[in-house]
# Entry
Amino acid sequence: MVVGRPLLTVEQIQEKNRELADRISADFKGKNLLAVGLLKGAFIFFSDIVRLIKIPLVVDFLVASSYLKSDSSGEVKIYYDIREDVTDKDVLLIEDIVDTGVTLNYLRERILMRCPKSLRICTFLDKKERRQVDVPLDYVGFEIPNEFVVGYGLDYDNKFRNLPYISVFKKST
Ligand code: IMP
Ligand code: MG
# Structure
């Protein structure tokens, strides 16, 4: 197993995060921002972006993982759910990567059932080509090609999350 060529450098990531955080700070000004990080994958992106957001906010987390079944319908398991009351909150769900869209679509509908004031989605990466379920994305860091990537919180088999940049991952044969 090898980590292949870098796709996004530390500098590119930092610049994009500042841009996204500025937009979020402007859009949520005067609102009741609840930033929800989707773990594990988003833990680094989440901690970087919340520190760049210049308006008051409350943080919470959702720990979930999805298993793709043979018919490609996903099953999402929740390990830790949002504990904050979302009813009067403008929720911003912060995700590492949207691939098929199955995970995010499921979580989005689950949060909407709890009647937040509003719900927006921010994802660091978007693998658009792979989409099976259409999910509205409000803030997208980078659109990437259909390649498996690791680093900056993203894993292969729970490894490589600590790599500070995004790299294409190739399984050696
Ligand atoms: P989706 O339900 O297919 O959109 O899957 C999203 C989840 O799959 C993400 O939150 C990641 O945990 C994982 N994932 C999808 N593509 C990649 C990748 O290229 N690298 C690492 N994890 C990925
Ligand atoms: Mg993952």
Notes: Helices lie at 10-27, 43-52, 102-112. The pocket of inosinic acid (ligand 1) is lined by residues 41, 66, 74, 96-104, 127, 148-150, 154-155 (CB under 6 Å). The mean pLDDT is 93. The chain has one domain: 2-163.
